């Protein structure tokens, strides 16, 4: 019965870290005026009849701060990859050089920087909501354990543990958001 009274704090932490990882992935896809290989990760190419991530049909490189190159391995897929990049919403005009697709990253204007900063804030808020949902699940576990005979001191301990974990994760989100917004606004 004592096992029914324990709260699985490791599971809660794993789920919260999953929300953080998702946020990092979303932040990586935001274009900041600097080239990054992660900005093309969401691009899917119709290769051999199925949608395939672009990094699985070619090598993605960042040869200079404002350029991403993709060396497509199969010549037959170059046109499809170019079309996928154009339709991806990245706002980048690809240039072809044989099997190499070059993506010059244009300078961002002030208005676009502010818009991207707002998008980053929205991603961070979604991550906070996900973490709060995990917190609610943890608190529900504590209430259920209390109903199964958990002593009040143990209940207070677990509530504090869950809240401390939540506060720490939300603090990490805030730091990540601050860093990403500074990166976006940097000229």
Automatic annotation (TrEMBL):
HAMAP family from the UniProt entry: RRF
Segments forming domain Ribosome recycling factor: 23-185
A Pfam family matched in the record: RRF
Similarity field: Belongs to the RRF family.
Keyword Cytoplasm applies: yes
Cited function: Responsible for the release of ribosomes from messenger RNA at the termination of protein biosynthesis. May increase the efficiency of translation by recycling ribosomes from one round of translation to another.
Record keyword Cytoplasm present: yes
Alphabetical list of Gene3D superfamilies matching this protein: 3.30.1360.40, Ribosome-recycling factor (1.10.132.20)
Name of the protein in question: Ribosome-recycling factor
Keyword tags: Cytoplasm, Protein biosynthesis
Organism: Paracoccus albicereus
Record gene name: frr
Domain of life: Bacteria
Subcellular location per the Swiss-Prot or TrEMBL entry: Cytoplasm
């Amino acid at each position: 019965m004592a096992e029914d009274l324990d709260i699985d704090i490791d599971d809660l932490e794993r789920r919260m870290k999953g929300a953080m990882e998702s946020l990092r992935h979303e932040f990586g896809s935001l274009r900041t005026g600097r080239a990054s290989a992660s900005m093309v990760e969401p691009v899917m190419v119709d290769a051999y009849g199925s949608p395939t991530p672009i990094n699985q049909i070619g090598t993605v490189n960042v040869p200079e701060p404002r350029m991403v190159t993709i060396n497509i391995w199969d010549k037959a897929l170059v046109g499809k990859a170019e079309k996928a990049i154009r339709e991806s919403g990245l706002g980048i005009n690809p240039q072809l050089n044989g099997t190499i697709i070059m993506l010059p990253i244009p300078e961002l204007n002030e208005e676009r920087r502010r818009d991207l900063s707002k998008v980053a804030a929205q991603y961070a808020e979604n991550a906070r909501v996900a973490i709060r949902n995990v917190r609610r699940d943890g608190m529900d576990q504590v209430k259920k354990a209390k109903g199964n005979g958990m002593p009040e001191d143990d209940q207070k301990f677990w509530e504090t543990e869950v809240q401390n974990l939540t506060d720490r994760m939300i603090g990490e989100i805030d730091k990540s958001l601050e860093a990403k917004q500074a990166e976006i606004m940097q000229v």
